[in-house]
Structure formats: C-alpha cells, structure tokens
C-alpha cells in the first residue's frame, strides 16, 4: 500500500497550517495509522513544535534530501509518538529555493525524495511555507491532495482564488490528479459573530468541500508547541484535541469508504 500524501497549504501565514499538520499527524497515529510529517517550511515550526532539537538535525534534514546530497532514510527522525516520524527543516531550506532554480525537474525534487518510502506509511503530511514558491510547488507535485486551513476572519477567502488557480495550472501540467481534500476552518470562536458569518460564507461558497470538523480557538493548541508536544500528549481532554481527533476520523472514514467503493 502507498501512503496518502496530504499537503497543508495556504500562502497566508498564521492561518493554522503548522498547528494542523502537527496535530492531524499525531491524531492519525492515535488512530493507529503510521504517519510521516514533512516540514517544508524554512521556519521549521513543525520540527520545533514536535520537540526536535535544531542542532541534532542541522546536517541531515529536508534540505539535504531535496538537493539530493543525502538519502531520504537518513533524514527521518523518531518523535515521542512511536508511529509518528518527522523529516525536519531549518532555515537552510531558504537556500534550496535558490539552488534549485536552475536545476532540471526542480518542482519534483520532493516527489523523487519521497518515492522510495511512500509504502512505509499510511499518511504523509507536508507542512508548507506561507508562499506559492518553489517549495510549495514541490509539495503540490508530491501530494495526492491538499488541505487549506482557513482562519475564520475577515479576508479569509482572499488569496484562495490565487491558490486554486495555481492548482489548476498544476493539474494541467505537473500533477493532474492533485485534488483539494477540504477547506479546514480554524481558530473559530463560536461567540464571535464575524467568525460565524465567515464560516457560513465559506460553506455557502464551497459546500461539502469544507470539512465538517471546525477547529476552535483554543489556548492549549497555542501552548503545546512550546512544550514540543502535539495537543493529544499535552491535553487530551482539550477542545483542540477533540477537534483534531474528529478531523482525523473524517479523513480516515472517507478513505475507508473510497477503498470499499473501489474494491
Ligand atoms: N486553533 C487555534 N487556537 C489558538 N491558537 C492557534 C490555533 N491554531 C493556531 N494557533 C496559533 O496561531 C499561530 C499561527 O498558527 P500556525 O499553525 O503557526 O499557522 P501557519 O503555519 O499557517 O503560519 C500560532 O501561534 C499558533 O499557535
Ligand atoms: Mg507554519
């Protein structure tokens, strides 16, 4: 079996990509699905948020796998959860964007790097940087699908058209089968009328392309990265934990149903 590869993408920063990548990955593992998290952001927030120490992976990380100097198996690390692995990143990766510009097939470096290990996992989640540059293109080329975290604030949908246009271009060239797995509403405060309005607007516009699960604004979710833990190890009772467990369930159930349909 081959992993489902999901990119967490939105060129806006601060919308909950990294929080969703870490916690969805951890919740897949809680549901006994072996998972690899790929940190593709030079800021390395997903790596630090999962408790990785920067000096331990400085010479063996996603950058080295992308430029092809290191075998991908050498850049995969254990986490506190037995079946959750990570390929970490640090600001070296800024260099990769520039170094790869003149290289052949520069958009498919990640796909190539991951190709030998996709049968070892059920899910691979790629945490994208906040841009539509070469790194994110690599994620779209390697992935089967993508999730768009959307903060329920004013201007939430701004930029979404540009993102979806980019996907159209990718579909007509690099990756014809890439599809949107869903829009994920994040940092939702049910007492805030604007949040409710934005959520409704997004659902009116995108219908069942929006996940039923909504991620609430939850202070525990913002605290846990500083302890290097996913939310389910930090506070399993929190609303943040319950929301990401529910999101994982939504995605797993969909997969089981699709496989039943295909067989
Ligand atoms: N549901 C949430 N509730 C509270 N804080 C959140 C939530 N999701 C994310 N945050 C916080 O918001 C900030 C931006 O989130 P992050 O996941 O890093 O976004 P991105 O990766 O899109 O830049 C971080 O400080 C994070 O801890
Ligand atoms: Mg991030």
Q: How would you describe this structure to a colleague?
A:
The structure is a single chain. The model has no long low-confidence stretch (mean pLDDT 95). The chain is built from twelve helices and seven strands. It has a seven-stranded mixed sheet with strand order 3-4-2-5-1-6-7, with helices on both faces. The chain has helices at residues 17-30, 45-49, 54-57, 62-66, 93-100, 109-115, 134-142, 160-171, 193-206, 219-223, 231-234, 239-262, and strands at residues 4-8, 35-39, 77-78, 84-87, 123-127, 145-151, 179-186. With 263 residues, the protein is α/β, with parallel strands linked by helices. Helix 1 (17-30) crosses helix 12 (239-262) and helix 6 (109-115) crosses helix 7 (134-142). The longest helix has 24 residues, at 239-262. Adenosine-5'-diphosphate (ADP) binds at residues 13-19, 45, 130, 186-187, 215, 217-218, 221-222.
State the helical fraction: 40-55%
Number of strands: 7
Our estimate of the beta-strand percent is: 5-15%
Major sheet: size, sense and barrel closure? 7 strands, mixed
Spell out which ligands are present: adenosine-5'-diphosphate, magnesium ion
In spatial order, strands of the major sheet run 3-4-2-5-1-6-7
Multimeric status of the protein: single chain
Brief synopsis:
This protein is α/β, with parallel strands linked by helices and 263 residues long. 42% of the residues lie in helices and 14% in strands. The site of magnesium ion has 4 residues, from helix 1.
């Amino acid at each position: 079996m081959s992993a489902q590869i999901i990119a967490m993408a939105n060129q806006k920063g601060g919308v909950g990509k990294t929080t969703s990548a870490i916690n969805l990955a951890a919740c897949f593992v809680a549901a006994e699905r072996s998972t690899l998290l790929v940190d593709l952001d030079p800021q390395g927030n997903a790596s630090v948020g999962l408790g990785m120490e920067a000096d331990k992976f400085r010479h063996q990380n996603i950058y080295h796998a992308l430029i092809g100097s290191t075998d991908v198996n050498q850049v995969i690390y254990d986490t506190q959860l037995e079946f959750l692995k990570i390929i970490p990143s640090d600001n070296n990766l800024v260099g990769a964007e520039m170094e790869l510009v003149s290289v052949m097939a520069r958009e498919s470096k990640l796909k190539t790097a991951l190709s030998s290990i996709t049968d070892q996992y059920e899910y691979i989640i790629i945490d994208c940087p906040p841009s539509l540059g070469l790194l994110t293109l690599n994620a779209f080329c390697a992935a089967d699908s993508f999730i768009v975290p959307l903060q329920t604030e004013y201007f939430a949908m701004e930029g979404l058209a540009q993102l979806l246009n980019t996907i159209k271009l990718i579909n007509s060239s690099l990756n014809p089968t890439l599809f949107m797995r869903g829009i994920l509403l994040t940092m939702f405060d049910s007492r805030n009328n604007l949040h409710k309005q934005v959520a409704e607007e997004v659902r009116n516009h995108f219908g069942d392309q929006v996940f039923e699960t909504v991620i609430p604004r939850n202070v525990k979710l913002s605290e846990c990265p500083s302890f290097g833990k996913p939310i389910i190890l930090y506070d399993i009772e929190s609303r943040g934990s319950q929301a990401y467990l529910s999101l994982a369930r939504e995605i797993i159930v969909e997969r089981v149903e699709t496989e039943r349909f295909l067989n």
